[in-house]
Amino acid sequence: MGRKNRTRQRAHDSRGLFWQGWGAGYSEIIKENKLFEHYYTELKIVPEGEFEEFMEAMREPLPATIRITGYKSHAKEILHTLKEKYFKEVQDLEVDGQKIEAPQPLSWYPDELAWHTNLSRKILRKSPLLEKFHQFLVSETESGNISRQEAVSMIPPLLMKIEPQHKILDMCAAPGSKTAQLIEMLHSDMDIPFPEGFVIANDVDNKRCYLLVHQAKRLNSPCIMVVNHDASSIPRLYFDQDGKKDILFYDRILCDVPCSGDGTMRKNIDVWKKWTTSNSIHLHGLQIRIAVRGVEQLAVGGRMVYSTCSLNPIEDEAVIAALLEKSEGALELADASADLPGLKYMPGITSWKVMTKEGQWFSDWSEVPTSRHTQIRPTMFPPTDPEKLANMKLERCMRILPHHQNTGGFFVAVLVKKAPMPWNRRHPKTPAEGNPSVPDTPDPSEVKKDHVCGPPPPKKMKLFGFKEDPFVFLTEDDPIFPPIQAFYDLSPDFPKLNVLTRTHEGKKRHLYMVSKELRNVLLNNSERMKVINTGVKVWSRNNDGEQFGCAFRLAQEGIYTLCPYIRARIINISVEDVKVLLTQENPFLSKLGDDAHTQAKKLEMGSIVLRYLPDPQDLDAPQCPIDLCGWRGKTSIRAFVSRNECLHYLRMVGVEVFRDKQGKRNDGSTETQEESTEDAEGLSQEADLLEQEGEETEQNANGTEPVSSTCDGINREKVYIKNVRICSFLYSLRL
């Protein structure tokens, strides 16, 4: 057999195994690990008399949990649709003999914006009775209105107490569910298009950064930047403040470190057979280095949330104790017990032991033989000084056990910075005062003490992965602005300096916007950090538009960022107009209501904003504003909205669009050739790509449309297709 045929055969075999895995696979793994049971029985992290219940819960599948994105003005409408339609339809159903329980809100999540149910992915995908609910979840997830996220994963962002002006660092951000929460909280006030704060989301894995970009891009925020660095040596950044260069300290830091993951056994079944104590022992040092780097960059008065999906105190309390000891009073554990009413948790422990994978126990560092000193470190043990231990208040840590609220296992601690870290009390020089290439961490030999972890050693920045296009900010007098300004009648306060493109040469295909603060960070740190993606697309070039006065049409992704500045090209529409625009391909202007028709006739051809404003007297209509990008043609009009967003807006105005197996929609229309091809053939192609190249296929995050070789300098169309379609496919599989 030739090499090509052998490759094809292997791909065919692996695809068969891949699809079988969704119905079987993990069921063959025996959910037992005697070493695990022995270890946690001895550590007594589970209350007396509850260990059997704890183990039974660990063997049960994890309930599905969804979160409605809280920052969008449409959140209440989605919640209303879920409660009044879909949850009522699935209540008391039986599928394959299993009774479907009505979804319940998470008692501790604010405003009923998070729900859990016993619906498994297998039931959701295969039951005809739940097909509408499944399609609803998939399309709303792709539109960024719903996120499928494990319940305990939602806890750390809530404990950060984020405000719109906060500068936030997410140190180990991929795949991005917590990052999405941070962005939502930053945009809690939708009347502010550019909050003063921002989120810098970092991950060490270049390929996982692109999954992170996909997750963040669904939220269309100008205040997010994705970077690619080792979190334990993430560079110190600088920004201009009052005319001089200053060091950037973050108000909030999320330090969700890599861990052994034994709290995820309910969903990651292979942990059962792979678990040993050596996993935690090997990760302990890295976790401390990442956490130390985090508190170094935290502003005085700021909060850092440290979290793991591990139950092991070596990864949890031991890391916190090492941080507190090293800080010499600069850090303290915050009491977060009242922050999430309804959340059940166990307080942190103050006594624990270390066990090797062979089952040998050590209660103190003094018991560890010299031959094991390179594996087992002093920081893995609790402090021996009773007074020092009491002052740490480790009981303020929070450990979530699976059997208490039917969740995964989790650990979280909130640290508040009271003063600079001891080795940073001599303020480090800014690049203006010294050589910017000099590391901003001190020589570890100057601060190292016995049995205490010092700051991470400086590392030379290495850049791997796909070479990104540059981020080029436009100037206020750029010739691209006058026609845009005149066509859309932009208000005088429109921030032109916040507009960027991704090419130095040739025609600019897309224009993006970032907040003023992120622009400041980008301009001052271009040589110090590797930026994967930032900005939200607001305009796309349309060559035909030049004859109508403007070569750039509006992009739906950035419509809510731009709309506060647009004073022309706006058509106010009714609920019935929304239905017409989203169910008909290119309706004639006469199809609109009289008011919208009159407005449309007054406008020249070109890009437009279609705006629905709620009527407080009509409670059956959506009670939130809707802005759609559109095009006013010679005799017709159309909305430029993606398919999933189209479904979302139709549901909001009372039209339920359900696609059957033939691609027909119950609104009377049929999917286009492009849509049906994408559904029927796209999934199998995506499966092929996944099997051949793995889940972490290298992807491009240069926007949401293919980039041709004649526009932004690099031909990435093929990379883009893999990028976005694989990410979309992954999320559809999860649902």
UniProtKB/TrEMBL annotation:
Its main location: nucleus. The lineage of its organism: Eukaryota, Metazoa, Chordata, Craniata, Vertebrata. One of its GO terms (molecular function) is tRNA binding. Residues 54-418 form the SAM-dependent MTase RsmB/NOP-type domain. Pfam families: Methyltr_RsmB-F, Pre-PUA_NSUN2, PUA_NSUN2. It catalyses: cytidine(48) in tRNA + S-adenosyl-L-methionine = 5-methylcytidine(48) in tRNA + S-adenosyl-L-homocysteine + H(+); cytidine(49) in tRNA + S-adenosyl-L-methionine = 5-methylcytidine(49) in tRNA + S-adenosyl-L-homocysteine + H(+); a cytidine in mRNA + S-adenosyl-L-methionine = a 5-methylcytidine in mRNA + S-adenosyl-L-homocysteine + H(+); cytidine(34) in tRNA precursor + S-adenosyl-L-methionine = 5-methylcytidine(34) in tRNA precursor + S-adenosyl-L-homocysteine + H(+). It comes from the Eukaryota. The active site is at C309 (nucleophile). Residues 423-456, 662-684 are annotated as: Disordered. It comes from Cyprinus carpio. Gene3D superfamilies: Vaccinia Virus protein VP39. Keywords: Methyltransferase, Nucleus, RNA-binding, S-adenosyl-L-methionine, Transferase, tRNA processing, tRNA-binding. S-adenosyl-L-methionine binds at C172, A173, A174, P175, G176, S177, K178, D203, D230, D256. Its EC number is 2.1.1.203. One of its GO terms (biological process) is tRNA methylation. It is found in: Nucleus; Secreted, Extracellular exosome. Residues 672-681 have a biased composition (Acidic residues). Belongs to the class I-like SAM-binding methyltransferase superfamily. RsmB/NOP family. One of its GO terms (cellular component) is extracellular region. This is tRNA (cytosine(34)-C(5))-methyltransferase.
